[in-house]
Automatic annotation (TrEMBL), chain A:
<dbReference type="GO" id="GO:0005886">
    <property type="term" value="C:plasma membrane"/>
</dbReference>
<dbReference type="Pfam" id="PF02608">
    <property type="entry name" value="Bmp"/>
</dbReference>
<dbReference type="InterPro" id="IPR003760">
    <property type="entry name" value="PnrA-like"/>
</dbReference>
<feature type="signal peptide">
    <location>
        <begin position="1"/>
        <end position="22"/>
    </location>
</feature>
<keyword id="KW-0732">Signal</keyword>
<dbReference type="InterPro" id="IPR052910">
    <property type="entry name" value="ABC-Purine-Binding"/>
</dbReference>
<feature type="domain" description="ABC transporter substrate-binding protein PnrA-like">
    <location>
        <begin position="25"/>
        <end position="305"/>
    </location>
</feature>
<protein>
    <submittedName>
        <fullName>BMP family ABC transporter substrate-binding protein</fullName>
    </submittedName>
</protein>
TrEMBL record, chain B:
<dbReference type="GO" id="GO:0005886">
    <property type="term" value="C:plasma membrane"/>
</dbReference>
<keyword id="KW-0812">Transmembrane</keyword>
<keyword id="KW-0472">Membrane</keyword>
<protein>
    <submittedName>
        <fullName>ABC transporter permease</fullName>
    </submittedName>
</protein>
<dbReference type="Pfam" id="PF02653">
    <property type="entry name" value="BPD_transp_2"/>
</dbReference>
<feature type="transmembrane region" description="Helical">
    <location>
        <begin position="64"/>
        <end position="84"/>
    </location>
</feature>
<feature type="transmembrane region" description="Helical">
    <location>
        <begin position="6"/>
        <end position="25"/>
    </location>
</feature>
<feature type="transmembrane region" description="Helical">
    <location>
        <begin position="37"/>
        <end position="58"/>
    </location>
</feature>
<feature type="transmembrane region" description="Helical">
    <location>
        <begin position="271"/>
        <end position="289"/>
    </location>
</feature>
Length: 357, 306
């Protein structure tokens, strides 16, 4: 009995000592849904992590785990990170929402930052980017460029984030091209290059000559390139290796400044739970260079739209807009509030098909 | 709903492409399991083949060399499994899982400098007259050569297992390695060759994804195809033609459901998304109602002294 007590206290003392030592360095953990080399979503989060390393050098230690499945397994990974002494953990996919909240309850002294979700706690912040502003720019280009009037859209999961993007792209494509039609395919995965390529091929076979994707790899770009006369947009990352065609522009996520600011806040002890949702104006959403495959007047229009979104003079969801079932949503000139946008679970009028529930 | 948007000819042609990587990997694993070895490293060998084939194709400019290299990479990589299970007598399940994890990591490392590169394309088979036939041409005669190699391999493995002496010996080793050993057959040597064949097939399947189906290199791009192939071998009751049927069903329904989605068919998307798994399992379970069972020595290590 005595021996065990002794061992326990020794172990505890050792544990305390390591924690104290670790406190010198701020440890920041990142949970990724795909591999860092996906060329899209996870790649950009890892760029953000590298920005943190660059900004703080020796004062910070970062750890990351790739390919973490959404759901219970992510809880295990986060718990492991917290146990290893992480001070701040970024969980970078929508499906980590509930696991993040669960783990955060168990570790009140660890700060969590969950991307694209809507649940917070005293030690859980959420952050996201207004990708739908970028989708508005894409929709404008897509509406002008399509000759078949069919735009293919590869959705990942039917979550507000994705639905918002589809609505925004559709509204702006419709604005410049009343005949435009969206064909939407749900891949039910964030990252599966073969399936994403198949989805792109299917859409192209069914007449689409513009492919928008909300999945993480560059596979749809490769499929579009093989098919020939099709244009695409880089998703999450610039994907410029597929330019000037098929990739004619892109949405670039820029997480670095936010990650650096939040790490700084933890170091200073000023960290608080916040809900951050920044767009083009704040620099969290970047629009990749619009290539020469786009006619000059279309390019100018897209850049003007980008500027008006950035300075706040135009909101991507400005009425009149009706919901898919025909009921009114936004009156003329009215703009959508963030609450509705954050939980968006309906298509706007004109889009065919249902959102899987 | 607009079913006319679906072009059945293009649909059948693309479902054959979607099925080929699964088929190649499954045929290889089938031979391995027939020899009594359970290699769960299919996914790892596939991704090694995917990057190996991709790298060689980019460096040499020849997709043919790339495919040969991918088979070689898969076979060489499977030697690690050979070393663990046939020489060191390690547990096959654990070794196979290790092979998958190692393969995924190693391929990510090797592939660092190949992200975003477009590989040279392998030309489609052009047979004068036949390829120009309406409907039949694009479906039967308009593919890349590897797709036909997949089908030929299925036929070859079937004939080999069923009619040849080599197949008989292989099956004997898989059913009862002690008896095979007593008859003077080199159990370990036969198993090593089977494992290498499985590795080569998996490598080819992986390269098919990175060179033809997508075509690009992305980390972790096999995304579970190896596991599907493993499951397929079991559900097909270790019979080559059923593995082909299963692969075509699975690959086919995956493509069909995407087509139906794009055409706006009023079936809830959740059902469409799960349909490849459900239908493949149902069909193969019904088919396997006859009394075909796993090779008796499957997963058991052999050592001559025991």
């Amino acid at each position: 009995m005595k021996l065990t007590t002794l061992l326990t206290s020794a172990a505890m003392a050792l544990g305390l000592a390591t924690t104290a030592m670790a406190a010198d360095k701020t440890k920041v953990g990142f949970v990724y849904v795909g591999p860092v080399g996906d060329g899209g979503w996870t790649y950009e989060h890892d760029q953000g992590r590298k920005a943190v390393v660059e900004a703080f050098g020796d004062k910070v230690e970062t750890v990351y785990v790739e390919n973490v499945a959404e759901g219970p397994d992510s809880e295990r990974v986060m718990t492991q990170m917290a146990l290893e002494g992480a001070d701040l953990i970024f969980t970078t996919s929508f499906g980590y929402m509930d696991p993040t909240i669960n783990v955060a309850k168990k570790f009140p002294n660890v700060r969590f930052e969950h991307a694209t979700g809507y649940k917070t706690a005293p030690n859980v912040s959420t952050y996201s980017a207004r990708f739908y502003e970028g989708r508005a720019v894409q929709g404008t280009i897509a509406g002008h460029m399509t000759e078949s009037n069919i735009v293919g859209y590869i959705g990942s999961f039917p979550i507000p984030e994705v639905v918002r993007g589809i609505n925004s792209a559709y509204i702006h494509a419709k604005k410049v091209n009343p005949d435009v039609q969206f064909k939407i395919v749900w891949a039910f995965t964030w990252f599966d290059p073969a399936k994403e390529a198949d989805a792109a091929k299917v859409l192209i076979e069914q007449g689409a000559d513009v492919i928008l994707q909300h999945t993480d790899s560059t596979a749809p770009q490769a499929a579009a390139q093989t098919a020939g006369n099709v244009i695409t947009f880089g998703q999450a990352s610039d994907m410029s290796e597929y330019g000037p065609k098929p990739r004619v522009s892109s949405i670039i996520d820029n997480w670095g400044p936010y990650y650096v600011a939040r790490t700084q806040a933890v170091m200073d002890g000023t960290w608080e739970s916040v809900m951050t949702w920044d767009g083009i104006g704040a620099g969290m959403v970047g629009i990749g260079d619009i290539s020469d495959a786009v006619p000059a007047e279309v390019k100018a229009e897209a850049i003007a739209l980008q500027a008006s979104l950035a300075d706040g003079s135009y909101h991507a969801f400005t009425g009149p807009i009706s919901k898919q079932d025909g009921s009114a949503w936004l009156a003329d000139g009215e703009t959508a509030d963030d609450g509705t946008l954050a939980g968006m679970n309906f298509f706007v009028e004109g889009i065919e098909g249902e959102i899987p529930q | 709903m607009d079913l006319s948007a679906i072009n059945p000819v293009l649909l059948i042609a693309s479902l054959m492409v979607a099925a080929t990587p699964i088929l190649l990997a499954a045929i290889g694993e089938l031979v391995v399991e027939k020899a009594g070895v359970l290699n769960l490293g299919v996914e790892g060998m596939m991704i090694i083949g995917a990057i190996g084939g991709f790298a060689i194709t980019v460096e040499t400019g020849s997709p043919w060399l790339g495919f040969i290299a991918s088979a070689a990479c898969g076979a060489v990589f499977s030697l690690l499994f050979v070393l663990l299970t046939q020489v060191a007598q390690a547990n096959q399940v654990a070794s196979g899982l290790a092979l998958t994890l190692f393969g995924l990591g190693l391929s990510a490392l090797l592939g660092q400098s190949y992200v975003g590169i477009k590989p040279p394309q392998m030309g489609k088979l052009e047979i004068p007259f036949l390829s120009d036939l309406p409907v039949i041409g694009p479906i039967l005669f308009g593919h890349d050569p590897i797709l036909y190699i997949g089908i030929a391999l299925t036929a070859g493995v079937w004939a080999l297992l069923k009619y040849s002496r080599v197949g008989l010996v292989l099956r004997a080793v898989g059913e009862n390695h002690d008896a095979a050993h007593a008859l003077g057959y080199k159990v370990v040597r036969i198993r090593i060759l089977a494992i290498m064949f499985g590795g080569a097939c998996a490598g080819l399947g992986g390269a098919y994804i990175s060179l033809i189906r997508v075509p690009q290199w992305t980390e972790g791009m096999t995304a579970g195809v190896g596991w599907i192939a493993l499951a397929l071998v079991v559900f097909s009751s270790w019979k080559p033609w059923r593995a082909l049927l299963g692969a075509y069903l699975f690959g086919g329904i995956t493509v069909v459901q995407l087509n139906l989605q794009a055409a706006g068919v009023a079936i809830p998307v959740e059902y469409l998304a799960m349909s490849p798994y459900v239908i493949t399992i149902i069909v193969l379970v019904i088919l396997s109602a006859d009394k075909s069972s796993a090779p008796a020595a499957l997963g058991r290590n052999f050592h001559a002294s025991r």
